[in-house]
């Protein structure tokens, strides 16, 4: 089996057409394109049809909870039936705490729809790790990824017991908290991600950094890069398999 790099969280619709074509041509990398609203959901669905290495996720970002119209939200919900991934959805008490109640209402709708169709949830939980896990623990959701996980280290055991994964971001090359998470987290719950295109502490987060991320995880875990690459790819395949059950 050929092992591939995995970018489990990329805002592909935010790239230039030239860069999208470049990323679509990478046959050694799998990309999961997350959405923020109806417009980006439709673009990413189109890119999935165009690119063999892209899987689209549809959703409404919690930052857009007070911006999405009811009819647009309903249309995004309808799109869930045509995809395997739902995201980027979740809660945010760090950057947009003022809309938390509305975020929670919308998030619960997404969780309900995703759980009834064996969808994978791609979760934003900045400042709300506890609240997101509390919602999920009361549902039959089988597959979820907590994007850019920098939450409490004590939650890692709960995440593993729930059968979920954490997104290890390329910010690891700059971010001490991400490094500490990698030290403590078991390899069998890790998925790599870029969250590109995004700039973090002077570092442009891009899928092109995924190989360097794999090498850094290997250094931290005292493993070979080949072993980490294989483990992350197997985690990704396991995630896809859960859609079928």
Please characterize this protein's 3D structure.
This protein has 245 residues and is an alpha/beta fold. It has a single domain, classed as Alpha-Beta Barrel (TIM Barrel). Helices cover 42% and strands 19% of the residues. The chain is built from nine helices and ten strands. It has helices spanning 17-24, 38-50, 70-79, 100-116, 129-137, 155-161, 176-184, 210-221, 225-242; strands spanning 5-10, 29-33, 54-58, 85-90, 120-124, 143-146, 165-169, 190-193, 198-200, 203-205. It has an eight-stranded parallel sheet with strand order 1-2-3-4-5-6-7-8. It has a two-stranded antiparallel ribbon with strand order 9-10. β9 (198-200) and β10 (203-205) form a beta hairpin. α8 (210-221) packs across α9 (225-242). The radius of gyration is 17 Å and the shape is globular.
């Amino acid at each position: 089996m050929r092992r591939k790099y995995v970018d489990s969280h990329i805002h592909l619709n935010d790239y230039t057409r030239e860069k999208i074509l470049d990323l679509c041509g990478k046959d050694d990398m799998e990309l999961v394109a997350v959405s923020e609203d109806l417009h980006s959901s439709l673009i990413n669905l189109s890119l999935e049809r165009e690119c063999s290495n892209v899987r689209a996720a549809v959703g409404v970002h919690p930052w857009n909870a007070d911006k999405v119209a009811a009819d647009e939200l309903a249309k995004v919900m309808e799109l869930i039936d045509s995809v395997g991934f739902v995201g980027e959805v979740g809660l945010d008490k760090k950057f947009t705490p003022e809309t938390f109640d509305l975020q929670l209402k919308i998030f619960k709708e997404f969780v309900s729809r995703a759980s009834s169709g064996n969808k994978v949830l791609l979760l934003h939980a900045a400042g709300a790790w506890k609240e997101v896990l509390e919602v999920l623990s009361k549902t039959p959701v089988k597959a979820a990824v907590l994007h850019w996980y920098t939450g409490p280290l004590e939650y890692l055991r709960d995440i593993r017991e729930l059968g979920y994964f954490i997104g290890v971001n390329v910010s690891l090359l700059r971010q001490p908290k991400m490094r500490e998470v990698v030290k403590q987290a078991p390899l069998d719950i890790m998925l790599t991600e870029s969250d590109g295109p995004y700039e973090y502490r002077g570092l442009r987060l891009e899928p092109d950094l995924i190989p360097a991320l794999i090498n850094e995880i290997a250094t931290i875990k005292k493993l070979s890069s080949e072993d980490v690459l294989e483990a992350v790819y197997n985690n990704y395949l396991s995630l896809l398999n859960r859609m079928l059950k």
